[in-house]
Amino acid sequence: MKLARRIGLVMLILVMAAGIVFARGQGGTESAGGGASASPAAAVPGSLPRKETLYFNGILWDKVNSWNPYNVGGNAFGITPNAGLSRQLIYETLFVYDLLTGTLKPQLADSYAWNGQTLTIQLNRNVKFWDGKPMTSADVVNSYQLQKTYATGASAWWSYINSVTAQGDYTVVIQGNPSSFNPKQIETSISALYITQKAEMDKVVAKIGNTPTALGQWTNMTGDSQIETQSGTGPYRPYISDETKAVLQRVDTYWGVSRYGKLPPAKYVAHAIYKDNATGDAAFRAAEVDISQQFISSVWTMFNVNVSTFIPQAPYYFPGVIPMIIFNTKDPRLADPAVRRAIAMALDYDTIGKNAMSGYTAPMVASLMLPTPAEQALIDVNALKPYQWSGNLQEAIAAANKLLDDAGWVKGSDGIRAKGGVKLSGLRAECPQGWSDWNASLEVVAQAGKQIGIDIQTYFPIATVWTQDLQNATFDIIMNSPGGVGIASPWNRAYAALSSADLPPEGTPNPIGNNGRWINKEATDIITQIATETDAAKLKQLWTRLNIIFLQEIPVAGLMYRPGVFHTVNETVWTGYPKMNDGSGVPPTLCIDGYGIKGLYNIRNK
User: Rounded to whole angstroms, how far apart are CA atoms 507 and 13?
Assistant: First the structure.
């Protein structure tokens, strides 16, 4: 593989992973929501008028260190590098992803159309930057070009793009790369890449120089933590930022009145920085927080006339990712598909859902797909049933034991199976220490092994060791969440979990995906074909066949459906948040991510 192609793919995985870590980081029962610093509990900023301020928690765990829209590792409120659910408060994207329908909705642009490998975008002529200057195609082209000049989290998309050019002031043309054409990745870019003002970014470039990492390291902050440039188009701009809080103030000249019919009702959106989940939960109960993105254990115990989730009953939250166990298929103990499939069959998915996930998952069904209408429509559900196993745990365990018996794995006097000199013992199931929901899930994996004559022990190293083991294939069984949330889902998930098209040579680090190094040419060819297939009937055939191969081979096994975001609201001060089947069509993405931004205009004082 060409070096540029590999660098692009690595950057793509980083951007995809950002969304996964965002969802994962607030999970389980970690005291600090995924690595929060031990900062003092913040007081609610009393100087802000409560009826004009919308408060959040669970997004920011330390002081803002950057307002840079090109910094994938930045710590900011109002900006996120999540590929496909980019936050729309300060900077905006051309289109926004709708989690409910799996489609893109207009934002800075009005429409897009494909003609072969050429994507033509018509921009919204009403868009203005904060300084009043109109956004034109030159700004969009420059925003893409910056990602080519510098190494940023969005550089990945140049693996799939040949050129981005302007045709007049309000038309942009993206030409796909014929050697690696992938329309869904290009569509991801138009819903994830923030658009900035060329005139101001030219000044920034002159100041920071051309070192590849310079743009990512630029903070876009003045000495008092305010935003340096005027290049935002969003409805809010930074107002206050310190060790205890981050506050954004509404831009009353916001162009989006032409899109949404009015300004968002909240004059301020604010995030107090809490030391841990418990402190944030207490503030949420007290209505000092309106929208919570924290993991709240047993959220239903908080329910009252004001507190609710998007879905009123289990699983309470909308599914976004599938945490999986990945089998090292190069390990002789796990090279046999019968062993991998038997472990997956014997898992107590109900216990994982109830204990590890606090009930925030729909019942697991063996497949690559989320239980969402958009993803389920891609497969022939009935065609998969002969390859799936019983939902009754004891029946599934019995079937798993029979599968191993038939495959020649014989139990010894110690109850552990062996075949051809290979003994199914000493297997380690690994994930980072302190990720308590994942830790609990892997204990269930170890217990499943006992039920079928396989010795599996849990192993919880620090996160950096887990990352090294994942990328170097120095693991037996490891937990991760391949893929992300966005317009390219579920292709990203299938590619990251199963494709061998871009695997680096054995013995070299693999940050790309398919960390278990499973090789199946038919599956890889199908994933490649899906990327460019447009016929709905053919796509359904391809996705169904891919799922059948997956079910036969089980190179990975999903453990749960994890929420993309934990959207919990307290309506003591504000009401009108999106709810399941409320007719609004607004997804539960905190009223600020992707098409969820429309919900910000629907809220009102109670």
Answer: 20
CA dihedral (98, 68, 564, 190) positive or negative: positive
Query: One-letter amino acid identity for 40?
Result: P
What is d(CA 567, CA 560) in angstroms, rounded to the nearest whole number?
18
522's enclosing H/E stretch is helix 521-530
Rounded-to-integer distance, Cα 587 and Cα 406, Å: 47
**pLDDT attached to residue 37:** 31
- What percent of the chain has pLDDT above 70? 91
CA atoms within 13 A on the CB side of 255: 21
Which residue, among 327, 369, 325, 362, has the nearest Cα to 347 in the 3D structure?
325
CATH number of the structural domain spanning residue 36 = 3.40.190.10
Nearest to 34 by CA among 450, 438, 498, 526: 438
> Between helices 337-345 and 393-406, what is the axis angle to 10°?
170
CATH number at 488 reads: 3.10.105.10
Summarised one tens digit per residue, pLDDT across range 397-408 is: 999 999 999 999
Query: Is there a domain that residue 22 lies in?
Result: no
Tell me the three-class secondary structure of 290-339, residue by residue: CEECCCCCCHHHHCCCCEEECCCCCCCCCEEECCEEEECCCCCCCCCHHH
Task: Please name which of 561, 555, 598, 551 lies closest in space to residue 577, comparing C-alpha atoms.
Answer: 598
Q: Give the β-pairing of 307-309 and 568-570.
A: antiparallel
* Other C-beta atoms lying within 10 Å of the C-beta of residue 495: 28
pTM over 0.85: yes
- Whose CA is closest to 41, among 266, 301, 304, 286? 286
| Residue 594 belongs to domain spanning | 31-313+565-605
Q: Which helix (H) or strand (E) holds 8?
A: helix 3-25
DSSP β-bridge partners for residue 96: 105
CA pair distance 264, 244, nearest whole angstrom: 25
DSSP alpha helices (H): ranges in 424-477? Answer: 436-451, 463-472
| pLDDT score, position 83 | 59
Same domain, 223 and 343: no
DSSP one-letter string for 361-425: SPPP-SSSS-SSHHHHTTS-HHHHGGGS--SSHHHHHHHHHHHHHHTT-EE-TTS-EEETTEE--
Residues 318-346 have pLDDT tens digits of: 998 999 999 999 999 999 999 999 999 99
